[in-house]
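Exam prep: given the inputs below (a chain plus zinc ion), describe the expected output before reading on.
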Amino acid sequence: MASIISRASRAAARLRRAGIAIVHWFDTDYAPRGADKLRTAPDQVDWVRCIPFIILHAGCLGALWTGWSPFAVGFSVAFYFVRMFAVTGIYHRYFSHKTYSTSRVGQFLLALWGGTTVQRGPLWWAYHHRHHHQHSDEPEDAHSPHVHGFWWSHIGWITCRRNFPTDYSKVRDLAKFPELVLLNRFDTVIPILTGIAVWGLGWMLETFVPSLGTTKWQMLWWGFFVSTTALFHGTCSINSLAHLMGRRRFKTTDDSRNSLILALITLGEGWHNNHHRYQSATRNGFYWWEIDPTYYGLKLLSWTGLIWGLKPVPQSILDEGSRGGHVTSVAQKSAPTHGDFSYATLKRVVPTAAAMAVATATVAPADAPVKTGSPAVHNDLAGRPQGYSASATPTAAYPSETACG
Ligand SMILES: [Zn+2]
Ligand SMILES: [Zn+2]
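Solution:
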């Protein structure tokens, strides 16, 4: 009898959790027992909560059913980069790090653009990213490949119940704007509208320009599902691969790296070691040869007056990078503090990453490094002025701008 009651209560608890997860599809702040309780949940996949995420991936199969057309595939690629710019230039370099300023209206418009990426709300994104910088490659880091392994850092952490809530106390500078909180709370609205808009564009092309051979369903599968799924994995490559492949210029306390391939995929985010060393700069490519299309785009946007006050890389950081050359990985030397991590094992588990690294001759040197304790590494984030920056005055142009073209 007791076991029946026990089974019934477990089933009821599962049902209750599933019900909450379904409500979360539409209202991400719904937490009848408090968000803190959710944040203490174990690192397990919440399958019900992830159904929309699974549908996003499964939707790519629709492309097999409809076939393709040059316009649909071209749109898919273009939409990937337009929204990758939103991820990197807006969610990352504005909401997470405030590396430039804008007006309140401008901030809202940027948040709308960011919403089309289907990477949840701007406050959720900024909260998790700031946490990553504060605990990079430490046990608290939600997506460190050195602590949690490649797949968990790439995709697993985002499926976990504990990582769904936004801790608004950690993003007070953003949470004071109700319009941003609203977008963050109902973070599926913009993605759904985006999908409908892409489908609608396809309908218009099919109806009015049939010579293109593009249908509304091609546009939905290619233009929205394939493009968005690729965008998701492109973004996640920074969480996973950017701490595994590439070279280290700065002796940061984490294992962040610089990679040209990742920079091309993510419009400049691949200069991740640079960024971990100094997070307040608008650009991640610190030198003219480090391609950073996001920065170029933000520079163009600044000429329209929508944004201003792009923050430069201090000369002292540039000099430090020039002096230091490339430094070795901290992962191998500090393996005991990272559980059972082994770089050689990781390369076997992630052959793609290793192959890409070898192909670009950017594999980390094998010599064991010393994990440095430079206190300055995270200081610029900790010391980042909190609060809305609309009143900030434009700063001087970036010092080495002329060298960057
Ligand atoms: Zn990182
Ligand atoms: Zn960052």
